[in-house]
Specification:
heterodimer; A: 106 residues; mainly beta; 4-stranded antiparallel sheet; 4% helix; 46% strand; B: 514 residues; alpha/beta; 8-stranded mixed sheet; 7-stranded mixed sheet; 21 helices; 17% strand
């Protein structure tokens, strides 16, 4: 759907008078990924958290189990480092792209 | 038994079958603003032309006490009839019978009428109103969906296929409509989704209504799954009849020619379009000034409104219009508008409908979100669709035709048959502002007054390059025309393209960027 309000819209250098669509106005802003943030790649339920805050963890170690689509997914440490913050606990339901764990490289 | 008794017995059986799930169930439907499946069919078809088949089909489920149940027609009505005299095959799922759920015999009935439509080369209309797979029939039910998808695919490009969503259409069931050419929805009645509210609630803990997940508006405005939006079933049926009126029966025939009428719109074309290419106007006014009787049936009106697609007539014969809409997002091409245009172009090409492209666009929508969503592969669909199309292709460049957008919008290079340009056309590698800033970067930066120099250089570039004459000097534009001549030029171009023939190398099929 389009709003009838005429506004200024920039395409490269030129500015055009036009209306904007709701979908365009609602588009999500993009942020570069943060390697210290472990996000859920699929919505699901936290079955088990295997680490605690300030714990030192080696690359490849399992941090937690995220059950999604009837599958128990292992969430693993991407590099040697420390758990700085846990944002979820056992039993939590998380949506997609939810911040679950913050980590720091050794 | 006398013959009369046989006849009375038949009538009684028919009467029982025709009441579907019974009066109470029908009334419940009506309270939701929904018509009974049988009424839906008769409302779409010409009066007294509906002929029903397989009325006495019964389900074959033998588990979960199903053997004790009878389901009228197994929850679906199939048959043939006419719309404005043109034959069609039609089916309607009956929600009053076991929630319109799809079991083995239900799917066999649908497949029977689909086979018939393909064999007889007539359009197929499917009315969907079903709770989904009939759980009691298990994998037989899934087999049924698969058989329908196969037929949708094989029939694609041979006969027009229309899906009407008049109730729930969930899970695998949504893929039959998605495989067809046009999907009609009605506000507050149509619901289409893969996962419904309960699954989302379980998995995500989030509460959404069916309407929010997959209501008519969602599919018309956001997802682009539906093509026509109506406020009531009656309005929806009128839209279907209007659409059928524009379409040929099959890919071997042409749409019916009607008595040509001059455009009703008396607005002069040059009065519609502002000379300043940065000022907007409603492209639909221009279509109205060009098309027969100013009639235009817009497809996907609410989705990606920065491009307009739809059917009109020229000299009484159906044409497809593809036009940039400067009124919305300056008429840019983006992921959504590319998908919308490409699919429409391919439909027209399948069914021998000439394509008229009205161009006024500043290029592709810039932004990281567009790049990440794949504007490259989505944009490529437009190129593929235009290049592949062998129907007559006519382009009129109204104002802006910059860069990749110029090439994409049915340029000469992608085998447009005729390219006309208004004197206001700016056919250039990019807009004058951008081009001048790059070409004259040094002069602008070293000037005493850089902004004044920039403006001077923009003006210089505009005069030299932002016009139709550079392209015309290479033959990329066939003719620079006066706006008032637009309709006549298109009519003539269509007339001389009538027997257009194109030979292509043999192949199984191309590998278009889906």
């Amino acid at each position: 759907m389009t709003s009838s309000e005429i506004t200024t819209f920039r395409v490269f250098i030129a500015e055009y008078k036009t209306t904007l669509t709701t979908k365009f106005k609602n588009r999500k802003k993009w942020f570069p990924p943060n390697k210290n943030h472990i996000l859920s790649i699929i919505p699901g339920t936290i079955l088990e958290v295997l680490v605690s805050e300030r714990q030192k963890v080696k690359a490849g170690e399992t941090l937690m189990i995220l059950e999604a689509m009837k599958m128990a997914n292992r969430i693993v440490m991407p590099f040697d480092g420390t758990i700085t913050k846990l944002h979820v606990k056992t039993g939590d339901i998380v949506p997609k792209r939810h911040l679950m764990i913050e980590i720091k490289q050794a | 038994m006398s013959l009369k008794q046989f006849i009375l017995d038949l009538r009684k059986r028919k009467e029982i079958a025709q009441t579907g799930g019974g009066e109470q169930a029908i009334r419940k439907q009506q309270e939701m603003g929904k018509l009974f499946a049988r009424q839906r069919i008769t409302s779409i078809l010409d009066k007294d032309t509906f002929h029903e088949y397989d009325m006495f089909v019964e389900h074959v489920a033998r588990d979960f006490d199903m053997e004790k149940k009878t389901l009228a027609g197994d929850g679906v009505i199939i048959g043939t009839g006419t719309i404005n005299g043109a034959p069609v095959c039609i089916y309607a799922q009956d929600f009053t019978v076991a929630g319109g759920s799809l079991g083995l015999m239900h799917s066999r009935k649908i497949c029977k009428i689909m086979d018939h439509a393909l064999q007889m080369r007539v359009p197929l209309i499917g009315i969907n109103d079903s709770g989904g797979a009939r759980i009691q029939e298990g994998v037989n039910s899934l087999a049924g969906y698969g058989e329908i998808f196969y037929r949708n695919t094989i029939s694609s490009g041979v006969i027009p296929q229309i899906s009407v969503i008049l109730g729930p259409c969930a899970g695998g069931a949504v893929y039959s409509p998605a495989l067809t050419d046009f999907v009609f929805v009605v506000d507050n009645i149509s619901k289409m989704f893969i996962t419904g509210p309960s699954v989302i609630k379980t998995v995500l803990g989030e509460d959404y209504t069916m309407e929010e997940i997959g209501g008519a508006r969602v599919h018309c405005e956001i997802s682009g799954n539906a093509h026509f939006f109506a406020n009531s079933e009656e309005e929806c049926f009128d839209q279907i009849k209007a659409l059928i009126g524009y379409l040929p029966k099959n890919n071997q025939s042409k749409s019916i020619k009607i008595e040509p009428k001059a455009p009703k719109s008396r607005t002069k074309l040059e009065a519609i379009v502002p000379g300043d290419p940065r000022q907007p106007y409603d492209m639909r006014d221009l279509i109205a000034a060009v098309a027969d009787d100013s009639e235009f049936l817009e497809v996907m009106e609410m989705f990606a409104a920065n491009i307009i697609v739809g059917f009109g007539r020229m000299n009484g014969e159906t044409v497809g219009f593809v036009a940039n809409q400067p009124m919305v997002l300056a008429g840019v091409l983006d992921c959504d508008s590319s998908d919308k245009a490409a699919r429409f172009i391919r439909f027209c090409d399948c069914f021998n409908i000439p394509i008229i492209t009205l161009e006024d666009m500043p290029g592709y929508l810039p932004g990281i979100d567009q790049e990440h969503m794949g504007v490259i592969r989505h944009g490529a669909k437009v190129l593929y669709a235009y290049c592949e199309a062998t129907v007559p292709k006519i382009t009129v460049i109204i104002r802006k035709a910059y860069g990749g957008g110029y090439i994409a919008m049915n340029s000469r290079h992608m085998r447009a048959d005729f390219v006309f340009a208004w004197p206001t056309a700016e056919i250039a590698v990019m807009g004058p502002e951008g081009a001048a800033s790059i070409v004259f970067k040094k002069e602008i930066e070293s000037a005493v007054d850089p902004e004044a120099m920039r403006q001077a250089k923009i003006k210089e570039y505009k005069e030299k390059f932002a016009n139709p004459y550079v392209a015309a000097s290479r033959g990329y534009v066939d003719e620079v025309i006066e706006p008032a001549d637009t309709r006549n030029r298109i009519l003539h171009a269509l007339e001389v393209s009538k027997d257009k023939t194109v030979h292509r190398p043999d192949k199984k099929h191309g590998n278009e960027p889906f």
